[in-house]
Structure formats: structure tokens, C-alpha cells
């Protein structure tokens, strides 16, 4: 439809129209060398995912960044479906913030999508001076055409959940989105829903807390996030802070894609819960736990109980299925959320993880499984680590999975990831009855990269996807 409408801009007019979009042929994802012992810059990999291509499952292009140890993490577009009505806009730039360096790279994918080029570098000093923020995470385009990036801290690594605003045309730093002095105590992810005049943000921890690894004492000391922050979309200020019951470390947040919906889900990593947030009858916001992944009693691990550690979640574009990854337990799950208050498990796959048979961890008590899962071998390679970042095809029929979380935590929880590199897997989805099936012919092995094993993270398609596009 976008091609038929001369006045229309990027993306699709609605989530259901997006489901009719073309099949993905390439993926972009950042690959990280920080903490691997390899002195090389992070880079943006372009992967061929077209089964008809002779380069299927191969990295076909690598764009190295000009600096070391940025820890590229998440990415976003210069514009998306929120600007569908603006024919002057085009989705041509990928915004890549550095989680550790606070540097932002802007990559041009418009001219040659299979061979992106570096367009612009925003140095951390510019962000520090104009915004007083650092440790950048989620990037979303706004209906205004501007780009907003969430921050986790101040320039010294203390907690500060603010938002950097970039000009939509020049991609220069304009300042903060929130009012002066109005940042949240902690930050991480965010999603906005203009029809309800709301944005909601989540919180991980201050960068100084998580940067060098996970310490259980920090949990006991209350240094990890456990709240959602509700922002007035027009006034750019917090109007409610919602404490989460059994909701430690709320990370990825997703409103339903339907722009009229006043509810969504957030994955709470450490407590391994999925919480539904919603506008209540009083017109304020509430939150309730709707899924609990029980911990497993174990021996041979850092703690006597191992949480699932829900690290990524997403919703299909028709808002029917919720997917999430348990990075430590090693399973990927699909829930039917047609009734958002009562999610129903419809698919589960074990794709590695810490509790596989033959590993150092022995499960003593398990509320879900009768035996420890078998190790996963795909195309002759044993998969190390667990399912982490996930991305869904527009039609909802294919899930892509990578296994790296954050280099410091990878090194702590899955040291073999550092030695062998991460992988990308693909799972076929039954969109009629629900269900997940591993594609045994798909494997991208980042352990075989030219400069040595790399840690691959979040995935993006050139035409947008269900975690970067927001509709009005």
C-alpha cells in the first residue's frame, strides 16, 4: 500500500497491513568484540536469510565501527510506521547506540541495503554535554520525525533514566525529551501509545551496578529495577510510577500493536515473570502478573535456585501471540494472548541453556520438566549459551534467535560463548494452532568470523519489524 500512495511515508498504515509485507531477505545485527579478548571494533553484520539465495545463512557484509569497545546493543530506525502519513520521510538510516561507550553510530542502508555505510558518528561528549546522559539503549523514531534514545545513566555511570532526542533530518543531538530534572531514577526500554497520551519505560540498573557483571548482593541491596514509569506523552513528564510485585528487572516492554489498545506486556528478567500493564477504570495505570516461570533448584551453579531469566519478549503484529526467551533455562516460549489476562502456553523449544544434560549444572527439583533437556546440535554444531534476542517475520511464521545477552554477563554465565561465539537460529511458527519447530537447515555461526568469534545481538529487517514499528 505504501508504494501505491504517493503521499505516504515509510512502513505500513496498520499492523495487519504490515503482516502482508514482503518476506525478509536480509537481517542486520550488531556483533560485539568487547570482553572477548579480541582487540577489534564492533561491527554491523548483514546476513542473507533468503532460502533461494546461494548465500543463505551467510554473513554477506561487515561494517566495522571506527572505535573499540562500544558494546553495540540495540538499534532503531530514523523513521518508521509512526510517520506513515509523511511522504517526505524514508527509512534509510539505522541508529546504533553504544551501551558502554554512549557513542551513537548512524548507518546508511538506503542506497545499498546489502552493503550499509557509516553515515555519522555522534560522540559521547556531545550527548554528555547536551543531555547529561550516558549508557544508551533503545532507539525509536517518533511521529514528529525525531529519534529518541533511552539512557540508563548519567555520564559517570550512576542511574538516570532519561531520553536523548535527535533531530530527524540532521540527526544532531537536540537535548533531552523529558523536562529538565525530570528523568526517572533508572532506565532501559520504552514504548509509546499516543492515542492514550502515554509512554511507559522500564529499568535495569545503574550502569555501575551491571557493567562488570551480576552480583547477587546488588539484588539484596535493592540496586536493580522493579518499577514501570508512566509518562504523559504531551507533557514529557512522569505521572505514575508502578511498583511491580514479583517483577525484578523489568526489561523489554511492548504495548499491543493495535494503536487503540491501552495494555501490553513487560518481561521481568530476574523474577522470570510476564506482567500485563493496562489502563484501569479510573483512567490510571495498573499492572498484574500473568505468567510465572518457576525457578529450578540446582547444584553446580552460582545460586541454589536458577531463574529462567526472561531477557526478550515480542508480540506478533496481530497481537495474538507473545514470545519470550528464558536465557538461563534455555527455552523459547509462545503464548496465545488473545485473552491478555489469561495467556495460554502453545509452544516451547529448548535451544541450549544452562541445564542441558552432561553440563556442570544438576537439576535437583523442577516444577516443569521430568528430565534435563538434551544439548542442541544444529548442522553439526553444538549450540552454547541460551536463546536471547528474538525477532519475528512480518507474517509471524518465522522466529530468529541469537544467543548473546551482554558481553560481561555472557562471560560470567556462558564463558563458552566467548570462546566459540554466538549463533543465529530460526524457528518455524504454527500461526493457526500455535507451536514451534526448529529449522534444522538454518545456522549462522558467528564463531567462524574472520577476526574471531563474535557476540551477535539484536536483529532488524530493512523494512521494519514488530519491535521497531509503532502505529498511530
From TrEMBL:
Enzyme class, broadest EC rank: oxidoreductase
UniProt name for this protein: Methanethiol oxidase
GO molecular function: methanethiol oxidase activity; selenium binding
Domain of life: Eukaryota
GO BP term (any one): protein transport
Description of how the protein assembles with itself and partners: Interacts with USP33.
GO cellular component: cytosol; membrane; nucleus
Topology of this chain in the membrane: Peripheral membrane protein
Catalytic activity as recorded in UniProt: methanethiol + O2 + H2O = hydrogen sulfide + formaldehyde + H2O2 + H(+)
Location in or out of the cell: Nucleus; Cytoplasm, Cytosol; Membrane
Role noted for this protein: Catalyzes the oxidation of methanethiol, an organosulfur compound known to be produced in substantial amounts by gut bacteria. Selenium-binding protein which may be involved in the sensing of reactive xenobiotics in the cytoplasm. May be involved in intra-Golgi protein transport.
EC number: 1.8.3.4
One Pfam family this sequence matches: SBP56
Family: Belongs to the selenium-binding protein family.
Keywords, alphabetical: Acetylation, Cytoplasm, Membrane, Nucleus, Oxidoreductase, Protein transport, Selenium, Transport
Pathway: Organosulfur degradation
Amino acid at each position: 500500500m505504501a508504494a501505491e500512495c504517493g503521499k505516504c511515508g515509510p512502513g505500513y498504515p496498520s499492523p495487519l497491513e504490515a503482516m502482508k509485507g514482503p518476506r525478509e531477505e536480509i537481517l542486520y545485527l550488531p556483533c560485539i568484540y568487547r570482553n572477548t579478548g579480541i582487540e577489534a571494533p564492533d561491527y554491523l553484520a548483514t546476513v542473507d536469510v533468503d532460502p533461494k539465495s546461494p548465500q543463505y545463512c551467510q554473513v554477506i557484509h561487515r561494517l566495522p565501527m571506527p572505535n573499540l569497545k562500544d558494546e553495540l546493543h540495540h538499534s532503531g530506525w530514523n523513521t518508521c510506521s509512526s510517520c506513515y502519513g509523511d511522504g517526505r520521510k524514508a527509512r534509510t538510516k539505522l541508529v546504533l547506540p553504544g551501551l558502554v561507550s554512549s557513542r551513537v553510530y548512524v548507518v546508511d542502508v538506503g542506497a545499498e541495503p546489502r552493503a550499509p555505510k557509516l553515515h555519522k558518528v555522534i560522540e559521547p561528549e556531545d550527548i554528555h554535554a547536551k543531555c547529561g546522559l550516558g549508557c544508551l539503549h533503545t532507539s525509536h523514531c517518533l511521529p514528529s520525525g525525531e529519534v529518541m534514545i533511552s539512557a540508563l545513566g548519567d555520564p559517570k555511570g550512576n542511574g538516570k533514566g532519561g531520553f536523548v532526542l535527535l533531530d530527524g533530518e540532521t540527526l544532531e543531538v537536540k537535548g533531552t525529551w523529558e523536562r529538565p530534572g525530570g528523568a526517572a531514577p533508572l532506565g532501559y526500554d520504552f514504548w509509546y501509545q499516543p492515542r492514550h497520551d502515554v509512554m511507559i519505560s522500564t529499568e535495569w540498573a545503574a550502569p555501575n551496578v551491571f557493567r562488570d557483571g551480576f552480583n547477587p548482593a546488588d539484588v539484596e541491596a535493592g540496586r536493580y529495577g522493579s518499577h514501570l514509569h508512566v509518562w504523559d506523552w504531551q507533557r514529557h513528564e512522569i505521572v505514575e510510577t508502578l511498583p511491580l510485585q514479583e517483577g525484578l528487572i523489568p526489561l523489554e516492554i511492548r504495548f499491543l500493536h493495535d494503536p487503540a489498545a491501552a495494555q501490553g506486556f513487560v518481561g521481568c528478567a530476574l523474577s522470570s515473570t510476564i506482567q500485563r500493564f493496562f489502563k484501569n477504570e479510573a483512567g490510571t495505570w495498573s499492572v498484574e502478573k500473568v505468567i510465572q516461570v518457576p525457578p529450578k533448584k540446582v547444584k553446580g551453579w552460582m545460586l541454589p535456585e536458577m531463574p529462567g531469566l526472561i531477557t526478550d519478549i515480542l508480540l506478533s503484529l496481530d497481537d495474538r501471540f507473545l514470545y519470550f526467551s528464558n536465557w538461563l533455562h534455555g527455552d523459547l516460549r509462545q503464548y496465545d494472548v488473545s485473552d491478555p489476562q489469561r495467556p495460554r502456553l502453545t509452544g516451547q523449544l529448548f535451544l541450549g541453556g544452562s541445564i542441558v544434560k552432561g553440563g556442570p549444572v544438576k537439576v535437583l527439583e523442577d516444577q516443569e520438566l521430568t528430565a534435563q533437556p538434551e544439548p542442541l546440535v544444529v548442522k553439526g554444531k553444538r549450540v552454547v549459551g541460551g536463546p536471547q534476542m528474538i525477532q519475528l517475520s512480518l507474517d509471524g511464521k518465522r522466529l530468529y534467535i541469537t544467543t548473546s545477552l551482554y558481553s560481561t554477563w555472557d562471560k560470567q554465565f556462558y564463558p563458552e560463548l566467548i570462546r566459540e561465539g554466538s549463533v543465529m537460529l530460526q524457528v518455524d511458527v504454527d500461526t493457526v494452532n500455535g507451536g514451534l519447530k526448529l529449522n534444522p537447515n538454518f545456522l549462522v555461526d558467528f564463531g567462524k568470523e574472520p577476526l574471531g568469534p563474535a557476540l551477535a545481538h539484536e536483529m532488524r529487517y530493512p523494512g521494519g519489524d514488530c519491535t521497531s514499528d509503532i502505529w498511530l
